[in-house]
UniProtKB/TrEMBL annotation:
It comes from the Bacteria. SUPFAM superfamilies: Actin-like ATPase domain (SSF53067). It is an enzyme of class 2 (transferase). The lineage of its organism: Bacteria, Bacillati, Actinomycetota, Actinomycetes, Propionibacteriales. This is Glucokinase.
């Protein structure tokens, strides 16, 4: 567990949130205060089935135990960014394929274990919302959350568009190469099958890459001297470019904002992506593309803001 130094704003009597981001590879937890600063952060590997709820609760208990008594009393709520289909009203996971959960209460068991009010949000909504606010809440934007999966949220006139099914912005399963490799969703050549973090690492390994490489940051750092890494990354960039051009053709957003762990590649993502979009745009106008500063913390920050907003203690 890492402990951040206590900056002055955390010494005040401001409310704190216990935040969780339940991802495909790890569950991240943090105690988050003003300015989105973490007092403590920790993570565990994601397990499937109901065990994931035990892991979240235990991580929360450990994070709370790590606080001083005074800080502990300032924690007013819990926010959980959860994958799949979520009923935010009841705090229930309706379907989380990757976690093997169907119709499973999330908020209730956590509230009982942690003795705090719990709010549950869809992970993309939480992360995209945090990225959007961090970017100055632009009236028109497409926010992409690039991590284990690839997802996004469209903002029009300052409001998120969730669509009739609630699944608007599901960029990851837009097919960009019908002859491409199989995706976890059953289709072929989806954006996520090329540009999702897990799939990039799987492709790198399958094509004979260095078996010691376990993270996308390491993969991206090798693209100058490792042709396999360069190929995997280039194909990911092409898939994202085609996906964003489709978004551009349909919605013409004022800007595209990139967040999530894969966006921590910064210039190694942004510059080739802009070039690839221009090369492949045809008649479609290429929207400005920029990076969020939140990176992999977007989900945690979004979950914390949700918890503070729903307990009426947000900034
Ligand atoms: Zn797919």
């Amino acid at each position: 567990m890492s402990q951040a130094p206590h900056p002055p704003e955390l010494a005040a009597d401001r409310a704190l949130a216990l935040a969780f981001d339940v991802g495909g590879t790890s569950v991240r937890g943090a105690v988050v205060g003003a300015g989105d600063v973490s007092l403590a952060e920790s993570r565990v590997a994601t397990r499937t089935g109901p065990a994931v709820l035990d892991d979240i609760a235990q991580l929360g208990e450990e994070l709370l135990a790590h606080l001083s008594v005074a800080a502990r009393t300032r924690v007013t709520g819990v926010g959980v960014a959860f994958p799949g289909l979520v009923d935010t009203e009841s705090g229930t996971s309706l379907k989380a394929v990757n976690l093997g959960l169907v119709d499973t209460p999330v908020a209730a068991p956590l509230a009982e274990r942690l003795r705090l009010p719990v709010s549950v949000s869809h992970d993309t909504a939480a992360a995209a919302g945090a990225i959007w606010v961090d970017a100055g809440s632009p009236s028109s934007a497409f926010v992409a959350v690039l991590g284990t999966g690839v997802a996004g949220m469209t903002y029009v006139e300052g409001k998120p568009i969730v669509g009739a099914s609630g699944q608007a912005g599901e960029l990851g399963h837009l097919v960009v190469d019908p002859a491409g490799s199989a995706c976890s969703c059953g289709l072929r050549g989806c954006v996520e099958s090329r540009a999702g973090a897990r799939r990039m690492l799987e492709r790198y390994a399958a094509w004979g890459g260095d078996p010691r490489i376990t993270g996308v940051a390491e993969l991206v750092a090798r693209t100058d001297h490792d042709p396999v890494a360069a190929q995997v990354w280039s194909e990911a960039i092409t898939a994202l470019a085609d996906g964003f051009l489709a978004v551009g053709a349909l919605l013409a957003p004022g800007q595209i904002i990139l967040g999530g762990g894969v966006a921590e590649a910064r210039g190694r993502l942004l510059e080739p992506l802009r070039d690839r979009m221009r090369e492949r745009a045809g008649v479609t106008a290429v929207p400005p593309v920029r990076l969020s500063s939140l990176g992999a913390r977007a989900g945690l920050v979004g979950a914390a803001r949700l918890a503070l907003a729903s307990t009426g203690t947000g900034a």
